[in-house]
Amino acid sequence: MTNSSDKSAKLLLVSSSGGHLKHLTETASAWENYERVWVSFKQPDVQAALENERVHWAYYPTTRNIKNAIRNFFLALKVLPQEKPQAVVSAGAGVAVPFFVAAKLFRVKTMYIECYDRPTLPTMTGKMLYILADSFNVQNEEQQKNFPDSTILHPIF
């Protein structure tokens, strides 16, 4: 995401609701000039936050729900070739995993941002995506101890 005025580049922003969505919306200055489309859950907070955005609705819940993980993987297999993003960006949670796996199959770059509210313990999603993400980002040095090859971003909040 180096050319912030490149409308020809498209991002697929994948997010669960709540704090994960807030993490991505708080980084808007990094992606607001890109063409983008979202994947998230059809829940009131998401609908309000993304009311002026294009959204593909993912299957919910995803926490320890194999059926919806599989459904979201097939959704990713449909959305990625349809949207043709240059990168998939996520701050979690579970909905990110099937999209990162599918992105690898389509050779689409991936970027993950580990949530700041777990400074000493890695998230489950972070542990799974650390090996898949092309760019794995944390928000402080404490988090980097769990993910040594990560990049430290400035704290989002």
Automatic annotation (TrEMBL):
UniProt keyword NAD, yes or no: no
Entry-linked InterPro entries: Oligosacch_biosynth_Alg14
Gene3D superfamilies in UniProt: Glycogen Phosphorylase B (3.40.50.2000)
Pfam families hit by this protein: Alg14
Signal peptide: none
Localization annotation: Endoplasmic reticulum membrane
UniProt keyword terms in alphabetical order: Endoplasmic reticulum, Membrane, Transmembrane, Transmembrane helix
Protein name: Oligosaccharide biosynthesis protein Alg14 like
Organism from which the protein derives: Rothia dentocariosa
